[in-house]
Design a protein that fits this description.
Length: about 325
């Protein structure tokens, strides 16, 4: 999708200058075959994605497993190499950075991973985990114990936790430790990659409330990646819907949830369980996601779409502005 302009969805109190701007980003992985490991094709995990994140804003990124959400987040962090396009962080291009410049950038862009147990070093106690970044950047003033206690206090944990080990905590407590670690360098942007999906529902609510409070206190921006539309709707200012490496719809959360335009967005919302309610059968997701190594011709969603037309099978859709959304669908093409 094309980049949004700064005038789009310009909420009061938010800067017009994007903190993060992603322009036609591609992340492809080569498929090697044969005795000489020749490239036989590519897995198009991220394929032409564009969006912006403004300061003190949360952008929710939703889609099924395998749609490219996590790869997109890892590419923004420099953990995967971009194949094409550009990423501008505060106006500076990330793909063109050398290792030293990228290390400096990491102070301003942090991540909270899905599984806190695997993302926390089991051989480090909590004090060393949450102050590791401070030590790396030479930002420890005074005792590490005091820094660790302050950070843990920010996420609702006591000082007695600083000498304990990750395996001694529950999943929710470990995720709070991960958030404290991400918060330690006072970043501008935190990428939350399925940060609450491994937690119980009650614990999810506690962690979400914590993230919202920290955003208010520190004026943070979030890229909140999740497969759960109901969770994202409680966190995000805007929502981007991703399917097979592309963003097919993006807009304000209220508009996306209340009036979804793309058939895929409708299917994701219809899949959310409703107590005492009935799903609309024509909006239930059908079929399997095609391989990103061989995406369908035309609209990538057409093999599963209940509204498929002849043009969908041959012509890739373009971005259309409709009711405040940006949507890639032939149903809304300009006439």
């Amino acid at each position: 999708m094309k980049p949004e302009t700064d005038s789009d969805n310009n909420d009061a109190g938010k800067s017009e200058t994007p903190l993060l701007e992603v322009i036609d980003l591609k992340t492809w992985f080569p498929i090697k075959r044969g005795l000489f490991s020749l490239t036989a094709g590519h897995v198009r995990a991220v394929d032409g994605v564009s969006f912006v994140i403004r300061r003190n804003e949360t952008l929710g990124l939703v889609g099924e497993s395998g749609c490219g959400k996590t790869t997109l987040g890892r590419t923004l962090l420099g953990l995967e190499r971009a194949t094409g396009g550009d990423i501008l962080f505060d106006g500076i291009s990330i793909p063109g950075m050398n290792r030293r410049q990228m290390n400096r950038l990491r102070r301003h862009m942090q991540v909270v991973f899905q599984d806190p147990l695997s993302s926390l070093n089991p051989r480090m106690n909590v004090m060393d985990i949450v102050t590791e970044g401070l030590a790396q950047f030479g930002m420890v003033e005074g005792s590490k114990q005091d820094h660790a206690a302050q950070l843990l206090g920010e996420v609702g944990m006591g000082r007695d936790a600083i000498y304990r080990w990750p395996h001694e905590f529950s999943g929710g407590q470990r995720q709070r430790i991960s958030i404290a670690r991400a918060l330690s360098l006072k970043p501008d942007l935190i990428i939350c990659d399925e940060a609450v999906s491994a937690l119980d529902v009650s614990v999810q609510a506690q962690v979400i409330n914590l993230l919202l409070q920290l955003q208010k206190d520190y004026r943070l921006s979030y890229l909140f990646i999740s497969h759960d539309v109901s969770v994202v709707s409680n966190v995000a200012d805007r929502v981007a819907v991703m399917y097979l490496g592309e963003i097919v719809e993006i807009g304000n959360t209220v508009d996306i949830v209340g009036n979804p335009l793309h058939p895929y967005t409708r299917m994701l919302i219809a899949a959310v369980p409703v107590a005492g309610g009935k799903r609309i059968s024509e909006h239930v997701v059908r079929g399997e996601t095609p391989s990103p190594a061989s995406p369908p011709e035309g609209c990538r969603f057409h093999p599963r779409c209940p509204d498929v037309m002849t043009s969908c099978r041959k012509i890739p859709p373009t971005v259309t502005e409709k009711e405040g959304h940006q949507v890639m669908c032939h149903l809304y093409r300009r006439t």
